[in-house]
UniProtKB/TrEMBL annotation:
SUPFAM superfamilies for this protein: Flavoproteins (SSF52218)
Transmembrane segments: none
Domain of life: Bacteria
Organism per entry: Rummeliibacillus stabekisii
Name of the protein in question: NADPH-dependent FMN reductase
Any one GO molecular-function label of the UniProt entry: FMN binding
Amino acid sequence: MKVVAIVGSIRKESYNLMLAQYIEKKYSNQFDLEILRLNDIPMYNQDTENEPPQSVVDFKQKVKEADAVLWVTPEYNASIPGVLGNAIDWLSRVDQVMIGKPSLIMGASMGNLGTVKAQGHLRDILFAPGLGSPVLQRNEVYVGAAHNKFDSNGNLTDESTVKFLDSVIENFVEWMKLYV
Ligand code: FNR
């Protein structure tokens, strides 16, 4: 199975990127994970949505070809980051590549609540008509205090988080088979 991870942070040392990279390595025997970064996605513009820039064409194509999407995002000002909302706007238009595609949401933040508000907003957004993505319920991964949970090589070292992630990924793999 092929999964793409959309990372909602474009910074180099992103904890959310670390989390996606950890999942890519740890569960490589369960699915292929390709991490998509949003650094080269220009601002959505309705004037160009039918003939978007090449980076957007490539981004949408990768999402279209994936069996499922893993959203790994920080919380910015109690919601999703602008770069993520912008990418979602592109995905929601024209060929609407998210419709019917299963999603799993997770996120890491330095605060204790671990992106709980951002994830709630993202879940609502994914139910919008232009997205129409079924989201795995009851498997909510909030990695709070992220600066204490990764080592200097980007490995997730917090044992309870590792164990919980194992169970969520197991549930995700079983559930996504319903849609493949
Ligand atoms: C933040 N941060 C933050 N954290 C949080 O838990 N709730 C919030 O509302 C916000 N808001 C916020 C706004 C802006 C503009 C920035 C730059 C940061 C802190 C955030 O969790 C922290 O910077 C993470 O490390 C960002 O994720 P990455 O880049 O490490 O993946």
